[in-house]
């Protein structure tokens, strides 16, 4: 890590639910313009980590900082402006069934940023083009398009406001390998094109290798390994080696 202020940082973060400690003094950061992928088994705190980052949860202890600012200590208006730096691709795309494709993409523009519908539609169609969807898809509804197209619409929604940080929640879940690879390519293209910072959580190691500059493994509420994505197969870490090999035997106990 360089000495520059991280774009996003979890500093000494702890979070528990009903007496179960999910995160334990978590220290993790990502520099501006970099892509970090968080891997780990089910129930190890990956989803909690990103929910804390976007303000859906608050830590029991520690701080989550954006550009060195702990947004949980900010008053409401300043906190909302800080949230404006984020975009997110939700697991399963999470589109609104009652809204057309372009309205899904423009949801934030219309409802949070105060952009009028005509301008919002134009920006939505531009964002759709960036993820290889034509203007003819704009007036369709989510139930009229494939799962892969839904994921691309979700990606267009994540990038339409030109965020500084994008969170990717299991971006390839439910997709066949070919479609997943296409989505990974689009993610890399959009992140690099915007020059933004990216944080992803995934079980898909092919995706982790493709979209991440670095990979961090979360286990039992702490980071047990972090390194370049290219080093996943030579980490020298027992937890990572077991996870990459998909073995039942090792320090990680299967969640069954």
CATH class of the largest domain: Alpha Beta
Number of strands: 10
Q: What's the gyration radius in Å?
A: 18 Å
Count every helix, treating DSSP H or I runs of 4 or more residues as helices: 9
Order of helices and strands: EEEHEEHEHHHHEHEHEEH
Amino- and carboxy-terminal Cα gap: 37 Å
Helix proportion: 25-40%
CATH topology of the largest domain: Rossmann fold
Task: Based on the coordinates given, report the CATH architecture of the largest domain.
Answer: 3-Layer(aba) Sandwich
Structural class: alpha/beta
Strands in their spatial order, largest beta sheet: 6-7-8-3-9-10
What is the general shape?
A: globular
How would you state the average pLDDT, rounded? 93
Low-confidence stretches: none
β-strand percent reads 15-25%
Going by CATH, the homologous superfamily of the largest domain would be P-loop containing nucleotide triphosphate hydrolases
The number of domains is 2
The biggest sheet, with number of strands, parallel, antiparallel or mixed sense and barrel status, is:
6 strands, mixed
Task: Please explain how this structure is put together.
With 256 residues, the chain is α/β, with parallel strands linked by helices. It has 2 domains: 8-85 and 163-245, Rossmann fold (3-Layer(aba) Sandwich), CATH 3.40.50.300; 95-150, no CATH class. The protein has 9 helices and 10 strands. It has helices at residues 46-53, 76-83, 101-105, 107-111, 117-130, 147-159, 177-194, 205-211, 238-245, and strands at 8-17, 20-30, 35-39, 61-66, 69-70, 86-89, 165-169, 197-201, 214-219, 222-228. The strands form 2 sheets. It has a 6-stranded mixed beta sheet with strand order 6-7-8-3-9-10, with helices on both faces. Strand 1 (8-17) and strand 2 (20-30) form a beta hairpin. The two termini are 37 Å apart. 40% of the residues are buried.
């Amino acid at each position: 890590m360089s000495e520059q202020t991280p774009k996003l940082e979890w500093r000494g973060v702890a979070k528990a639910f009903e007496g179960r400690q999910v995160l334990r003094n978590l220290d993790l950061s990502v520099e501006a313009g970099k892509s970090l992928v968080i891997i780990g088994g089910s129930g190890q705190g990956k989803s909690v980590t990103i929910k804390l980052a976007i303000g859906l949860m608050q830590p029991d202890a520690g701080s989550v900082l954006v550009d060195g600012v702990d947004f949980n200590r900010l008053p409401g208006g300043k906190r909302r402006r800080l949230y404006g730096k984020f975009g997110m691709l939700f697991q399963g795309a999470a589109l609104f069934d009652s809204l057309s494709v372009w309205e899904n993409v423009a949801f934030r523009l219309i409802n949070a940023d105060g952009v009028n519908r005509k301008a919002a539609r134009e920006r939505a169609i531009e964002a759709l083009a960036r993820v290889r969807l034509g203007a003819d898809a704009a007036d369709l509804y989510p139930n009229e398009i494939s799962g892969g197209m839904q994921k691309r619409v979700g990606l267009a929604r994540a990038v339409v406001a030109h965020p500084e940080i994008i969170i990717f929640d299991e971006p390839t879940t439910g997709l066949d390998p070919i479609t997943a690879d296409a989505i990974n390519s689009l993610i890399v293209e959009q992140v690099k094109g915007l020059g933004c910072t990216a944080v992803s959580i995934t079980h898909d190691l092919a995706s982790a290798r493709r979209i991440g500059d670095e990979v961090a493994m979360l286990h039992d509420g702490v980071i047990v390994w972090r390194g370049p994505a290219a080093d996943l197969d030579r980490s020298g870490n027992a937890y990572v080696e077991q996870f990459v090999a998909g073995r039942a035997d090792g320090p990680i106990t299967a969640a069954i």
